[in-house]
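ARCHIVE CARD
Drawer: 12
Card no.: 0347
Subject: one protein chain, sequence and derived structure
Cross-reference: see card 0346
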Amino acid sequence: MPDWDFNLIGKYLLLFLTDGIFGYFLQFLGYSLAIHAFNKKRIQPKPFLLMTIIFSLLAFGIRKLPISFGYHTIIITIVCMIISYTLFKTSIYQTVLAVLLTVVSILIFEGLVVYGIFSVILGSDTVDSILSEAPNVDSSLKKTLLGIPTNFLLVTEMFFLYRILPKRLKKGGSDGEAGKANS
């Protein structure tokens, strides 16, 4: 019988759950909310959940590719736009805006949370050492835990955007139509 390391198996299971749910799923829930908001699409649970799961799985696969850090973000952004446009029949222009806004929001929130708040709480040396550790289960789990507040902020922002943006667009608040009437 093989010698099982149940401690390591437990760590991998915890990493899978935290990274899968609080990492990928929440982040791409934010993407999906933004895409629905900008396309003025009403959320229907099955397609919305399907969109979020597809984006999450694709992002997970893309992030496992042996490419330099940063390129995966560009590839994920492009893939999300193409999948949303082709599979979920969204407007390409609105989808590009939504995805780019989401990427910018993630960068801002990561900067504020990880380098701002956590650097104050844990110390900048500790945060830097966590982010620069060689990839293993423990370091991946620490990085995932650092990213959870960012993803909650993203989902909160995109939920408010989903609730507010379509109403403003209907009233002519930000689509340029209001300005045409006055000129």
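Annotation on reverse: The chain has seven helices and no strands. The helical segments are 6-38, 45-63, 71-87, 92-122, 124-132, 137-170, 177-182.
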